[in-house]
Amino acid sequence: MLQLPNNSPDNIQIRRMKLTLLVVGKTTDPHIVALIDDYRKRLTHYLPFDLQVIPELKNAKSLTQDQQKAQEGDLILKTVGPTAFVVLLDEHGREYRSIEFADYLQKRMSAGQDMFFVVGGPYGFSPEVYSRANGKISLSQMTFSHQMVRLFFVEQIYRAMTILRGEPYHHE
After folding, report:
1. Residue range 145-155, pLDDT digits in tens
2. Which terminus of the chain has fewer CB atoms gathered within 10 Å of its CB, N or C?
3. Got the DSSP string for 26-92?
4. Helix crossing, 9-16 with 98-110: angle to 10°?
5. Residue 20 per-residue DSSP state
6. Is residue 3 part of a domain?
7. How far is CA 43 from CA 39, 114, 154, 172, in A?
8. Residue 170: pLDDT over 90
9. Contact 112, 13 (CB under 8 A)
10. Is the pLDDT of residue 49 over 70?
11. 19 within 8 A of 117, measured Cβ to Cβ
12. How many domains does the chain contain in total?
């Protein structure tokens, strides 16, 4: 298990880096919203964390899937900017065990670069977003609703932080 002492240089680096979960469309289920908010609050003890929402497209039903992905992609690219490290939550991404994901985050955080994890719209990402991405992660080979993915991923970020600090949340 990876442990960081409270006064380690890595912890100082962790505090400087900002992690953002960027999602397309708001979370509508109040139960899921409450759980996400709980984990968001917990995460503030470890690092600057934000959940940003790109509003759903107006008249999306009149657009083709490719048009919708392109328009959402433009909004995603404007939000992440040119310098952040961007990881897509994508069904074809790499799967991690929780301890492996904690190790991955530790390595990324020690680089000090702001990170965006992105959950796309219902049809996925545009080719331009795939080109801009620095990586892809899959939570499972199963398919989950976009609302559930948000909750599962925020919990996994929290779990990773507790693993890195040697706290008793994760059991293995």
Report:
1. 989 999 999 99
2. C
3. ----HHHHHHHHHHHHHHTTTS-EEEEEEPPPTTGGGS-HHHHHHHHHHHHHHHHTTTSEEEEEEEE
4. 80
5. E
6. no
7. 6, 15, 9, 21
8. no
9. yes
10. yes
11. yes
12. 1
SS3 115: strand
85: its two tokens: 């490290």
pTM of the model: 0.88
Closest CA to 115 of 83, 93, 92: 83
Residue 171 in any domain: the answer is no
Question: Shortest CA distance to 111 belongs to which of 85, 87, 136, 90?
Answer: 85
User: Is residue 169, in this structure, part of any structural domain at all?
Assistant: no
Interval 154-166 mean pLDDT: 96
| CATH code of the domain containing 64 | 3.40.1280.10
Residue 20 inside a domain? The answer is: yes
Q: Distance between CA 118 and CA 137 in Å, rounded?
A: 10
For 110-130, the pLDDT digits (tens) are 888 999 999 999 899 999 999
Q: Position 113: which residue type?
A: Q
Q: Token pair 């897509």 is at which residue?
A: 88
Q: Is the dihedral of CA 160, 164, 165, 167 positive or negative?
A: positive
Domain span holding position 62:
9-164
Say yes or no to pLDDT of 13 above 80: no
Q: Which amino acid is at 7?
A: N
Q: Which tokens sit at 88?
A: 């897509």
